[in-house]
Design goal:
By secondary structure, the protein is of the alpha+beta class. 40% of the residues lie in helices and 25% in strands. It starts with 8 loop residues before the first helix and ends with a helix.
């Protein structure tokens, strides 16, 4: 048979019958899912658990230059949904949240980037093109604003560009803000139009080829570029664990936590790891799956830099996410289940993406605290026992 590619009811049922699918994966009305994926054939059902976390949240807005400014702060308990099948994840995050008390979060930066490349005839031409591009930023912003092209996104605002010449190639990192959306589609459309409608048509040095994404950033991958300069939302979460909470809830000591931080940091350096953290991807992926985020963006979003040190009366811990690619509109967030879970956290109205980014960071720190505490005990016995009890014998 010819594989039907449409998302109409007849095509959906034809695919199901051809594959012999029936039961839970096909029992749900699939029409509501057809706007989020092609050739929809069924659904994957993942259990969702909810963890209450106390978060000291900032409210933020962008100024005219695209810089993030805090305008207020509130502390509240947020119920965070986790879609996963990882035994112990929910219990561990709950324990970490209990030990942490109110986790304080900060949004530091907001940029999403597309890494294009122009291939020139020589390095000389590539250098000349780079200089021209750097001088054209204001003109390119005006060109986009005045364009009547239906593919131009009015929500994606060009903030900066960075060039990097290697051989005959002029790499360009276009940097955008995209409101409450992750913005991948928005900034991709605008970057393409700039490449083909502006640079290729107006540059004094005519490139031989334009490539929309040439990997100078690290789209959906860990990268030094994004670890250092950010991609999406750059967010930091911190907490001071009291000695009482460390002993009673985490069943370890501040000395043990400090010893683990010292060993783990040097282990990360020795491995060349593009992160200094324990297990952030578990938290990021579970929240992404529940709230309709792009799962492929876990690669960049879970890059993290954790710190830990002894302080008077306890232990200060923090985690910095330079590249949280999150949105509260568009894509999978339009699915009914995703809207419900986002609404539970108060992340469905205009201007809620910074709130959501902070909640994700706070949840990840709660998991880091608990998992690290389990590993910090002598011989890491608590970590072993947690996996033995949850995973069972094989």
């Amino acid at each position: 048979m010819r594989w039907p590619r449409k998302n109409d009811p007849v095509s959906i049922r034809t695919r199901q019958e051809a594959l012999g699918l029936n039961g839970l994966v096909t029992s749900i009305d699939l029409e509501q899912f057809t706007g989020a994926a092609e050739t929809v054939t069924g659904v994957a059902v993942i259990p969702v658990s909810v963890v209450p976390i106390s978060v000291d949240l900032g409210t933020y807005e962008l100024d005219d230059a695209g810089a993030v400014h805090e305008t207020g702060r509130t502390t509240e308990t947020v119920h965070v949904p986790l879609a996963h099948t990882e035994g112990g994840l929910t219990a561990s995050m709950t324990r970490g949240a209990k030990a942490a008390g109110a986790i304080r979060t900060h949004v530091l930066h907001d940029r999403i980037t597309r890494a294009s490349c122009f291939v020139c005839a020589s390095a000389t031409d590539a250098i000349a093109l780079a200089h021209w591009l750097e001088a054209e930023l204001d003109a390119m912003r005006a060109w986009l604003a005045q364009s009547d092209d239906p593919f131009v996104s009015r929500f994606a605002q060009l903030r900066e560009l960075t060039t990097h010449v290697v051989g005959p190639m002029c790499h360009v990192l276009w940097a955008w803000t995209t409101g409450d959306a992750v913005g991948a589609n928005m900034m991709t459309r605008n970057s393409y139009l700039l490449n083909m409608g502006y640079v290729m048509e107006r540059a004094p040095v005519k490139p031989e080829r334009a490539i929309l994404e040439a990997n100078m950033g690290g789209d959906k991958k860990p990268s030094y570029q994004y670890f250092r300069s950010g991609h999406g939302k750059t967010v930091l979460a911190e907490s001071i664990l009291t000695n009482e909470a460390i002993g009673r809830v985490l069943r370890t000591t501040a000395n043990d936590l400090e010893a683990l931080a010292w060993a783990g940091t040097h282990g990360a350096v020795a491995s060349g790891m593009q992160s200094v953290a324990f297990t952030p991807a578990s938290a990021i992926a579970a929240i992404f799956a529940a709230t309709g985020q792009d799962i492929g963006m876990v690669g960049t979003s879970s890059m993290a830099h954790g710190t830990g040190r002894r302080v008077a009366g306890g232990f200060h811990c923090s985690i910095r996410f330079p590249g949280l690619e999150v949105g509260t509109v568009g894509g999978g967030t339009t699915l009914p289940s995703a809207r419900d879970w986002l609404a539970l956290m108060g992340c469905t109205g205009p201007g809620t993406v910074y709130r959501f980014a902070q909640i994700v960071a706070a949840a990840a720190l709660a998991l880091e605290i608990s998992a690290s505490a389990a590993m910090a005990t002598a011989g890491s016995e608590n970590f072993f026992r947690a996996h033995h009890e949850r995973g069972g014998l094989r």
